[in-house]
Specification:
Elements (H helix, E strand, L loop, with lengths): L5 E2 L20 E7 L11 H8 L9 E6 L6 E6 L11 E2 L5 E9 L2 H6 L14 H10 L10 E9 L2 E6 L8 E4 L5 E4 L6 H4 L3 E4 L4 E4 L3 E4 L17 H14 L7 E4 L4 H16 L5 E6 L5 H13 L2 E6 L2 H6 L1 H8 L4 H19 L4 E3 L4 H5 L11 H13 L5 H10 L4 E3 L5 H8 L9 E3 L2 E3 L2 H6 L10 H4 L6 H4 L2 H14 L2 H5 L1 H4 L8 H13 L3 H5 L47
Parallel strand pairs: 14-15, 14-17, 15-16, 17-18
Antiparallel strand pairs: 1-16, 2-4, 2-10, 3-4, 5-6, 6-7, 7-8, 8-12, 9-10, 9-11, 12-13, 19-20
Helix pairs in contact: 5-6, 5-14, 6-7, 9-10, 9-21, 10-13, 18-21
Length: about 575
């Protein structure tokens, strides 16, 4: 890849003192094979399983492990990114040799589980992953996933029983497929199984579910907010603020060096401000990172303001249009999507994570999830009523695994960097989503309607401010816009030069599944098809499309609400008037 221009201060490896609550972080790639006992077939070859698991080498380049059950032939493979406890190699064994687990993610309450639910068990390591196999031994029921406070994609074998599971919202990526012999295959990334199961069955593993051969897929996560009609609680700003503080501090537990992704937007700025306070209290170095096309991009300017205010050692990475375009092919292979929004936003994140990893950082905090929870995207200004607003926020949260969670996980794990997302903490979700929609909809502030009013108000504390007010009340930018408008405009122009009008006109016959409707979308789709040619692979992708506006471009500037809108007044829905203080742009 081309050398990316950057302005980076001198940097030394960050270290963290290990404490009782520290995690032996399970950053990795997992691969598993489960044989259907009702369909006898040849045992899957373990050498082939290891070969396919290795396609996720970037997720865990430090060491490998595997286990094969002697009777069932079920297989567990693991690619590990080592942090500090190098003796803790997965698969991890339970109380006997045929009890094994592979896990990608973090279990933040593993110390509490050891002291309480597993007090009678003799665990061998300090690794958070170990509690998974011991909980299954004790309870023998997949609903034990509700006891886990964290994010995870795991597979286990216990006395010949097989189980796989994914965290409540799909923060960790996971896919499954069924081959011609009826065997189920599981992996963090589709590339490990697409050429095996792409002609039969291939799909994302549903978040909040576990799988067992005799039960199929079973939903274990069912919060009250799944029903939007129950979201009627009055706003509690103190509880909301404290819940996010707790969620952020919880995600600082680690043996590994931790830093902050500070885009300059509201969400990453809040997470950064909270994390900086706690890291300073612990005596840890505080490093923040931002990316943009230059130092004048909207997010870069705001990020510098925040970094100075909260006191981080701030680093900026700049990239050119040509450098961004040059990595698109490889990026699509990593992302496993053709969704335009995800690719636009993942390009700067991919470039940034490469620099972060070279500096010795393996874990970063980020602000994904807030826009979905609080209706932060500008199209939410167009919601026809409170009920539709609330339904759309829940719909967006439940499909984060196809969009922002996918982007954050895969674009950073491409360089072996783990992303943690405090806004998607289960307790914080219960507080925020259960709040009635009237308190969350955009409200007037300083002459204009402001999105995410509730979370802004919760942190607008005069006596001990977390952020400068100009940042706290700054207008929302899509991440791909905020790195610099020239990135999106240039990418659209480049794709237009690569696709002919005739190609776009025949797109429906070339790609009947999720047919691309722009030259940019068709360009991305052709790259995806080159890497993942099966129809099943194409069906795994969900396109991100804004609601309640005629212009389907995912850029925030496609909304009339944006201060630099590129939309036409004709793009506004019939029920929506142009907000006060806005200028109509032709």
């Amino acid at each position: 890849f081309p050398r990316i221009k950057a302005r980076i201060r001198s940097f030394s490896l960050i270290t963290c003192s290990k404490s009782q609550s520290a995690l032996s972080v399970s950053m990795c790639g997992i691969f598993a094979v489960c044989h259907d006992p009702s369909r006898p077939c040849a045992k899957y070859d373990v050498g082939k399983a290891q070969e396919h698991s290795l396609r996720q080498y970037h997720r865990g380049p430090d060491c490998r492990g595997s286990y094969v059950h002697p009777q069932t032939g079920d297989i567990l493979c693991h690619e590990r990114l080592a942090i500090m406890d190098l003796s803790c190699v997965q698969p991890l064994m339970g109380s006997s040799q045929d009890h094994q687990v592979v896990h990608n993610g973090e279990i933040y309450n593993h110390v509490s589980l050891r002291k309480n639910e597993l007090a009678d068990k003799q665990l061998r390591t300090t690794c958070d992953s170990e509690v998974i196999i011991f909980l299954y031994e004790k309870l023998r029921d997949g609903s034990f996933c509700n006891l886990l406070d964290g994010v995870f994609a795991f597979a286990l074998i216990c006395d010949g029983e097989f189980m796989a599971a994914r965290d409540p919202l799909g923060v960790k990526q996971m896919y499954y497929g069924i081959d011609r012999e009826g065997r189920y295959l599981f992996s963090n990334e589709m590339k490990s199984i697409e050429d095996i199961t792409g002609e039969t069955k291939l799909a994302p593993f549903p978040p909040g579910h576990y799988y067992q051969p005799d039960k199929g897929f079973v939903r274990y996560y069912q919060p009250l907010w799944f029903d939007h009609r129950l979201c009627t609680k009055d706003a509690d700003l103190t509880l909301l603020r404290q819940s996010l503080i707790d969620a952020t501090i919880k995600r600082l537990m680690s043996d590994a060096p931790i830093a902050i992704l500070l885009s300059g937007g509201l969400d990453s700025s809040l997470v950064s401000a909270i994390a900086a306070r706690e890291m300073r209290r612990l005596g840890l170095p505080i490093h923040s990172f931002a990316v943009g096309v230059d130092g004048n991009s909207p997010d870069a300017v705001a990020a510098r303001t925040v970094a100075k205010f909260i006191g981080t050692d701030h680093h900026e990475v700049h990239f050119t249009l040509e450098e961004g375009i040059a990595i698109i092919d490889k990026l699509v292979w990593h992302l496993e999507t053709y969704d335009v929004t995800s690719i636009r936003a993942s390009t700067p994140m991919y470039i940034l994570s490469e620099y972060i990893r070279k500096m010795g950082i393996k874990v970063v905090l980020s602000g994904e999830g807030s826009d979905e929870i609080f209706g932060g995207y500008l199209y939410f200004h167009n919601a026809p009523n409170e009920e539709e607003f609330q339904k759309e926020t829940i719909e967006r949260v439940l499909h984060l695994y196809t969009a922002d969670c996918l982007r954050a996980d895969k674009s950073c794990m491409a360089h072996s960097v783990e992303v943690r997302v405090p806004f998607l903490d289960k307790k914080f979700l219960d507080v925020s989503i259960m709040t009635k929609p009237h308190d969350k909809q955009p409200k007037a502030f300083m002459g204009r309607n402001v999105e995410k009013y509730l979370i802004r108000k919760a942190f607008d504390v005069e006596e001990d401010p977390y952020l400068p007010r100009e940042i706290l009340w700054r207008q929302k930018e899509q991440f791909s816009d905020g790195v610099g408008y020239s990135w999106i405009d240039g990418l659209i122009g480049f794709c237009a030069s690569q696709i002919t009008d005739e190609e776009l006109a025949s797109a429906s016959s070339t790609f009947p599944i999720n047919t691309p409707h722009s030259k940019e979308a068709l360009y991305m789709r052709k790259i995806f098809h080159k890497h993942f040619p099966s129809d099943e692979a194409a069906r795994t992708v969900r396109k991100w499309i804004p609601k309640w506006q005629a212009n389907q471009d995912p850029s925030g500037r496609a909304s009339l609400v944006h201060l630099n809108s590129t939309a036409s007044p004709a793009d506004k829905p019939a029920h929506q008037s142009i907000p006060q203080g806005r200028t109509q742009h032709a």
